[in-house]
Amino acid sequence: MCLQDMKLKELEGCLQQVDVFESPKLLLEQYPTRPHIAACMLYTIHNTFGDIEDKVIADLGCGCGVLSIGAAMLGAGFCIGFDIDEDALDTFRTNSEEFELSNIDLVQCDICSMAPTNLEKSVDTVIMNPPFGTKHNKGMDMKFLKTALQMARTSVYSLHKTSTREHVQKKAADWKVKMEVIAELRYDLPATYKFHKKKSVDIEVDFIRFSFD
């Protein structure tokens, strides 16, 4: 099933069928990427930058696979989802089977503790929604980004809290990569854990492209 020419609404409709975490794990900051945000990200990456079709794509902290599945639908050559959580990968596997996608592989690992030389420049594009690095996971977002930049040959697309933009810009300058904020999004975070008092919270999030040119 390859739908490179599908409309944004069609893509979002397909991604709404992707199963998400049954029992999300707080320690891993497991929040699903909403179908609308995932579709907007992928559609822009595909149509504006041409970084999906026929490309090898890595999805770091892939969870249940919405970004990989969307990329595969848009004609990616091959997608590799990396996640530490076996339960999330089981759901991802079921999702990809239900969509009859054969150009996806999954790797269970701790992406932040892998030796960078193993994966250096191993994929064309990295697309990810990393942990935001809140609570006990401080700095996790930057660890994901550093690994992604080591892996990618062309570009990295990632979501980061708008409140951390200056910090991300400083890191990008330190690492000598070009950073472009493509869009400012409102990330609707549903009440997922017991300590969440509100039904949902809007978080301001930057959709960023990092590149080496």
UniProtKB/TrEMBL annotation:
Domain Methyltransferase small intervals: 52-150
Signal peptide bounds: none
Cited SUPFAM superfamilies: S-adenosyl-L-methionine-dependent methyltransferases
Gene3D superfamilies: Vaccinia Virus protein VP39
GO terms of molecular function: nucleic acid binding; rRNA (adenine-N6-)-methyltransferase activity
UniProt name for this protein: Methyltransferase-like protein 5
Family under the similarity heading: Belongs to the methyltransferase superfamily. PrmA family.
Family annotation (InterPro entries): DNA_methylase_N6_adenine_CS (IPR002052), rRNA_MeTrfase/Polyamine_Synth (IPR051720), SAM-dependent_MTases_sf (IPR029063), Small_mtfrase_dom (IPR007848)
Listed PROSITE patterns: N6_MTASE (PS00092)
